[in-house]
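Changelog note: in this version the structure field was regenerated for every chain. One regenerated record is shown below for reference.
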Amino acid sequence: MEVVLAETAGFCMGVDLALRRLDKLILSAEGCPIYILGPIIHNPQVLKRYAEKGVVMATDPSEVPAGAFVVIRAHGITRQVEEALRARRVKIKDATCPRVKKAQLLIGRHADDGSELLLYGEADHPEVAGLVSYARNGHFVFDSEEALAAHGLVPGKRYVLAAQTTQDRVHFERIAAGLKDRGDLDVTVLETICDATKLRQAEAKELARKVDFMVVVGGYNSGNTRRLAQVVSDQGTPCRHVETVDDLPLEDLAGYARIGVTAGASTPRSLIEKVLDGLAAL
C-alpha cells in the first residue's frame, strides 16, 4: 500500500499562533489562573492536554474571576462577550486568528450603513456568532443557496455578503455571482474566506482524484475538517473522517492500493503521525 500525505495537513497559521500564545502564557503566568472562553481550537485531544496543565475552560464570562487571565480562542468571540470580559477586569489575551479578526472588522465597517449581513456559514459555529455580532443592522446566516433563496431578499435594499473563514470558496463565489446577476440588489461582497482554507481544499480535491481512498484527520466538531471530508466525498472518492487512529477501520482499508491522508487546520501533527503509522503497518 502507498500512503500519500497532503502537504498542508495539520495546523494552520491561526491555530498555531493561538496555541503558541497559550503555551507562552502558561510559562509566564506565575500561578495566576488561566481560563479559555470555550475551546481554544476544535480538537478534543488538544483540549485535554491543556486541561491537564491547569487551564480552565469557561462557558460564560461570569465564570472568569477578576484578576485571572482569559485567552480568547482562535475562533474569536462576540463584541458583547468581549465587553462583558472587560467589565470584569480580567487579563485578556487575544488569540483570535488574524483572518477571523480581519473578517470581523470588515463586516463591522461595511455593515454599519444600514446594510443587512448575509453570512454563508454554520449558524451554530462560534466563529459565526462572533462575525454576526459586528453586523449592527441585522443578519441572516445560511448554509446553502436554497436557504438564501428562501430568505426573501428585498429589491433595492442594501446587503453585505460574507462567509465564515473556513467555507468553500467555490460555493461562495457561485452565491456571490448569483446575487450580482439579479441586478435588483445592492450587494457588497467581502472576501473573508482564508487562503489557507482554499489551498487545503484544492489540495484535498487533487489528492482525492489520485488515490483509492482518503482519510481526513481532525475533531468531529471541527467545521473546517468536516468540509475537507465533504470536498473529498464530492470527488466521488471513498472517505473516512477520523479523530484518531483508533477510529480507522484498518482491516477494511487493507485492500486499497493507494490511500491519501489530509487533516484539518486544528489537528496536531502527533495525531496525523499515528494515523500514518497505523496505515503503514497494514
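Spot check on this record: The chain has a mean pLDDT of 94. The longest strand covers residues 158-163.
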